[in-house]
């Protein structure tokens, strides 16, 4: 089921999301494409949280519990593992309007399945949660803002009615979708809803999978034009003396990484969103993550969408001494917040010399037979403001060169910054016990997922796993490697994990 109805600010201060996130729970889990994290809010009445593995690959004991606070007063029941990995998201009418943004999106099962029968419920967000994020551009002034539309389980109402944003005249809105399962299908609440939003799920018969978009092409084309006119100013990526850049020295002031840096990419870069929701554990209802709602929803849990953007903005940047690009959150009293689109604007403005664009061996842009698909890759890229596949960017981001640069840039970056990164919190403690081991394990699996061995490369990372399967140590081979075969066009990876119908990759998370 495809498109169509189916028959400029910086990191916030004391209210930073990074400071509100409890340490992720160490749980036994299978390695899946993304991990939706359910976390307790720090401060006030907290909750005991249970996380589970992805339904697509959950082991028989795929969930475990741990207390997020010794004084927890309520619990969130661990979701029942399910073999279903796909869901529908119902997009409201006029999704680019203020009223459309404030109208809850609805999560439900595919092919007529109910939320309960399919597991497509926001109480099951770790497995099948969906997340929506809008970034708004004022075409007259170039001002940017963010709004996070709410997703509810179909048939339920919000715990708190969403705030209706005030949009500038003729606002240009882009909407990004993220999913903690495998395939998320856009469905229009009305016959014209998806057309009204310029929404795209992929190609006919071949969707991207976890991610989809609305109106990204118009947003980025307008933003880039306003930059050229001097109306929109995107800041620099910033510099830091805390880390060692590839080939550099500590303390010399290095450019902070952006989402197009090979220092931090994995096999599916620029995917998923930074949106967070609150879950009322008593009613199972969701609400926008706002200061007011946090205060009023006692014991609410925080729902996250695992994404490369969250990894960079909330986990890597604080450790490296960097800050993300932020804009006012129209749903939360204009407090500054990040977004996927803001990250892409920052990356486009401060694109590194060796640029990492979505490669053709990213499983989200493969065709249904697992083969490279230039047209589908271009379709994905244009929704996030990236250049189409061409001879120039193939020098860094062709399938073979993406592997080569990921190996030759990220491996020495991790090796040179082991002590610093080891002080950071792992986004997923079932993958690595700190930020360093998480990134090392992620790099190792990305090598396999992209089938870099098909181009004559050797995996540069060796990880040591504990009894639960989490990386606790890593060694790096930093010797430069060169592609021996640049013409491979077959299926990137061997079947290793998930339930994705056409794809074959394993990944510790969308991060």
Q: What can be said about this structure in brief?
A:
By secondary structure, the chain is an alpha+beta fold. The chain contains 14 helices and 24 strands.
List the helices and strands and how they pair.
Layout: H1 17-20, E1 37-40, E2 47-52, E3 63-66, E4 74-75, E5 86-91, H2 98-102, E6 105-108, H3 115-118, H4 125-128, E7 130-137, E8 144-147, E9 151-153, E10 172-179, E11 183-188, H5 193-196, E12 199-200, E13 202-203, E14 206-207, E15 212-214, H6 216-229, E16 239-240, E17 254-255, E18 276-279, E19 286-288, H7 291-296, E20 301-304, H8 308-320, E21 327-328, E22 336-337, H9 340-349, H10 374-383, H11 394-397, H12 399-416, H13 418-421, H14 435-449, E23 461-465, E24 471-476
Parallel strand pairs: 2-4, 5-11, 6-9
Antiparallel strand pairs: 1-20, 2-3, 5-6, 7-8, 7-10, 10-15, 12-15, 13-14, 16-17, 18-19, 18-20, 21-22, 23-24
Helix pairs in contact: 12-14
- The rounded Rg comes to 21 Å
Helix content: 10-25%
Number of strand elements = 24
What amount of the residues lies in strands?
15-25%
Strand-pairing-aware structural class: alpha+beta
First-residue to last-residue Cα separation? 27 Å
Unreliable spans are 1-81, 490-509
Average pLDDT rating: 83
């Amino acid at each position: 089921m495809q498109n169509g109805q189916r028959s400029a600010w910086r990191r916030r201060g004391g209210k930073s999301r990074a400071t509100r996130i409890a340490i992720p729970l160490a749980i036994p889990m299978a390695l899946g494409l993304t991990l939706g994290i359910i976390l307790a809010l720090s401060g006030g009445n907290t909750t005991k949280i249970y996380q589970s593995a992805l339904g697509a690959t959950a082991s028989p004991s795929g969930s475990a519990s741990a207390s997020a606070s010794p004084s927890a007063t309520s619990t969130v029941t661990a979701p029942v593992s399910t073999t279903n990995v796909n869901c529908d998201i119902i997009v409201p009418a006029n999704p680019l309007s203020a009223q459309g943004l404030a109208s809850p999106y609805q999560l439900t099962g595919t092919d007529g399945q109910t939320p309960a029968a399919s597991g497509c419920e926001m109480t099951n967000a770790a497995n099948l949660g969906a997340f929506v994020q809008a970034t708004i551009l004022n075409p007259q002034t170039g001002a940017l803002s963010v709004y996070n539309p709410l997703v509810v389980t179909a048939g339920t109402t919000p715990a708190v009615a969403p705030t209706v944003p005030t949009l500038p005249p003729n606002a240009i809105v882009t909407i990004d979708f993220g999913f903690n399962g495998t395939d998320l299908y856009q469905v229009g609440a009305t016959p014209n809803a998806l057309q009204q939003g310029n929404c795209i799920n992929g190609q006919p018969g071949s969707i991207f999978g976890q991610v989809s978009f609305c109106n990204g092409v118009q947003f980025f084309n307008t933003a880039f034009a306003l930059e050229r006119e001097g109306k929109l100013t995107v800041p620099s990526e910033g510099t830091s003396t805390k880390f060692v850049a590839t080939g550099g020295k500590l303390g010399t002031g290095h450019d902070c990484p952006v989402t197009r840096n090979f220092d931090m990419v994995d096999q599916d870069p620029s995917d998923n969103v930074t949106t967070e929701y609150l879950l009322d554990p008593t009613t199972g209802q969701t609400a926008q993550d706002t200061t007011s709602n946090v205060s009023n929803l006692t014991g609410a849990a925080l729902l996250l969408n695992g994404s490369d953007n969250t990894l960079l903005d909330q986990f890597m940047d604080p450790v490296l001494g960097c800050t993300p690009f932020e804009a006012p959150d129209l749903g939360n009293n204009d407090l500054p917040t990040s977004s996927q689109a803001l990250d892409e604007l920052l990356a486009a403005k401060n694109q590194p010399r060796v640029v990492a664009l979505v490669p053709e061996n990213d499983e989200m842009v493969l065709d249904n037979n697992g083969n490279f698909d230039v047209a589908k890759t271009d379709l994905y890229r244009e929704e996030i403001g990236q250049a189409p596949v061409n001879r120039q960017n193939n020098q860094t981001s062709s399938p073979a060169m993406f592997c080569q640069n990921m190996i030759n840039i990220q491996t020495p970056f991790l090796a040179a910054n082991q002590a610093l990164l080891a002080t950071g919190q792992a986004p997923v403690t079932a993958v690595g016990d700190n930020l360093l081991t998480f990134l090392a394990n992620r790099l190792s699996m990305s090598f396999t997922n992209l089938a870099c061995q098909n181009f004559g490369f050797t995996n540069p990372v060796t990880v040591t796993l504990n009894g639960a399967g989490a990386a606790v140590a890593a060694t790096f081979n930093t010797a430069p490697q060169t592609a021996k075969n640049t013409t491979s066009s077959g299926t990137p990876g061997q079947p290793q994990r998930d339930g994705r119908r056409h794809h074959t990759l394993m990944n510790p998370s969308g991060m």
